Amino acid sequence: MHTTLHLLADAPPQMLPARSLMAFTLASHIILVPLGVALPLITLIMHAYGLRRGSPTALLLARRWSAVMAVQFAIGVVTGTVLSFEFGLLWPGMMGRWGDVFGIGFGVEAWAFFLEAVLIAIYLYGWRRLPPRTHFLLALPLPAAALLGAFGILAANSWMNTPRGFTLDSAGNPTDVHIWKAVFTPMFGPQYWHFVVAMLVTAGYVVAGVYAAGWLRGRRDRYHRLGFTVPFTVAAVLTPVQFMLGDAIARAVFHKQPVKFAAMEIVWRTDTHVPEYLFGRLHPDGSISGGIRIPQLDSILAGFRADTKVTGLTSVPAQDRPTATQATIAHWAFDIMVGIGSVLVLLALWYGLVWLRRRRLPESKWFFRSAAGAGAASVVAVECGWITTEVGRQPWIVYQNMRVAEAVTATRSAALWTTFGLVAVVYVFVFGSFLVVLLKMRTRWRLADERHKEAGAVEQPETDTPYGPRSRVAAGGAPAAPEQGPPTGQGPPTGQGGP
């Protein structure tokens, strides 16, 4: 305890508000990231299905998802811009010394951001204005642009975890920068693919969860069935893949960042036959209270053998490792993430077994209740993954090269706390507006679908297809005779509800 208090006393007073502000804005922004990275691909999968099968229902879903994509992108612009300013304002020591080395990642992300904005605008404009296949082909680069943005951010973060691509001069400043090595660091591959698949899984479960909730409320038409099946299938197929990628990145941390691994697993002393603790709390004297102790499992998971040596926190001086509290936070976040991932694997297996045996969706209400909650659980897992990565690296902002205390701004803590309060108020307004817009869109779409049903039998074709002129019904006029589908061979849906 004395060591922990000593380290806290040595920290600059502005470090706590700077960390708190950065943590709040990152935790808020990351809620939007799965939809920003993965929704374009999921939308295009639905779009391709609609064109291939001639399904107006699938095309309608794709068009509506593209509108959600645009609104989410606009909100992400606000939160992402705040983060970009914070890097320079809160951590000038890091940006001033190391910006020339790892700044290329932020440059790539900025370029991808503008490219994605243009492609989203073209995609939205193309509905009803471009030939169907031309519209689809013009949208194909959109998922790649979203993944390119993730590439830039993950390149910068992985460099902070395993910095490479430079030499230090006599004053400790980086020189002879090798961009290729600075981008493709040892942790980049494991982090990037783990992140990308996590975004696809999370977005799939979030979107499917909306339609699972509608299914539980009795909206069991083709619209909800298709809106659930496509994104849930994407997520279910990738969930076991993500579990294996998670195991791979944990092993990469074991080899490349052994002290962070010790924090994640609350290992105090270097040893073999190390037990695994499910939860539990690490104390400053190295003792562990609470949790479930599984003998030798940590060594087995790390190296597939019980005699695998696992590096402990005491392998480095106290000032070069996370505190007991920080290690406990990283450990709990890691365990929650793994626990959620394990439950999602079971849910994916449930879905897959029923589909393979009966070629239909499960009928159990508990399945759809679980599916409705999977989206929120996935977001929690993403938050926990970020906490594990960032808290486990402490006290380093650039691993083994610069401490957080060396990088923090000299701005007075009172000013930082005031800024934190203002940012929190703005974010409440921004996210509240986002929610209001989504709810209004849902209400408008639901009313439009009800007018379509009043226009004719449920089995008749969609009267407001995403290609061709708007129908009188969709525009709010009197019911009209059903129109012909677009020139893509689209067949009739079986009725729609709200999203």
Automatic annotation (TrEMBL):
Segment Disordered: which positions? 453-499
Alphabetized UniProt keyword annotations: Cell membrane, Electron transport, Heme, Iron, Membrane, Metal-binding, Transmembrane, Transmembrane helix, Transport
**Which Pfam family is one of this chain's hits?**
Cyt_bd_oxida_I
Q: Is the keyword Cytoplasm in the record?
A: no
User: In what ranges is there compositional bias, type Low complexity?
Assistant: 474-491
Location(s), subcellular: Cell membrane
Record's bilayer topology term:
Multi-pass membrane protein
**PANTHER family the record matches:** CYTOCHROME BD MENAQUINOL OXIDASE SUBUNIT I-RELATED (PTHR30365:SF14), CYTOCHROME D UBIQUINOL OXIDASE (PTHR30365)
| Name assigned to this protein | Cytochrome ubiquinol oxidase subunit I
